[in-house]
């Protein structure tokens, strides 16, 4: 179901080209970096590659939230649900990492998945399935109370199925 070879359906952040997240480098709070950047953990991407890129929260963020918004997706149907697979890192005691859905007729973002901070320094992977009868956007967001040395939040390899 996942076509990882297509830049249309996948964001591995190796380049600045990521069609589903058209402006990820313009989202304040996020920084595109690799494990060799000297900015603390994670020290590699989810494959263990120190020179491969991912997005992480900028350490300049003292306390607040940062969001990453996709382009607009068309409504799903029974045969083509939208599945989004992503790798995430939340080694942050006060951090909450959320995925939200914003339908075009609604002003609010509906939270469809979240994980709260822990100090396990490891990449995790998750897949969420979205059904929507109208156009929608998906928002990856992080909320932090405080930011301490050695704590971080990162995201890598967001893959979108054909139904998105």
Give start-end ranges of low-pLDDT stretches.
1-7
- Quick one: overall form? globular
Strand element count: 10
The overall pLDDT, averaged over residues, is 85
Task: Output the radius of gyration.
Answer: 15 Å
Secondary-structure content class: mainly beta
Q: The CATH topology is what? A: Jelly Rolls
Total count of helical runs of at least 4 residues: 0
Q: Which assembly state applies to the chains in this document?
A: single chain
Into which percent range does the helicity of residues fall? under 10%
Beta fraction of the residues? Answer: 35-45%
Main beta sheet strand tally, sense and closure: 6 strands, antiparallel
CATH architecture call: Sandwich
Number of domains: 1
CATH class: Mainly Beta
Order of helices and strands: EEEEEEEEEE
GO cellular component, one term: membrane
Domain MAM: 9-164
Protein name: MALR1 protein
Organism: Poecile atricapillus (Black-capped chickadee)
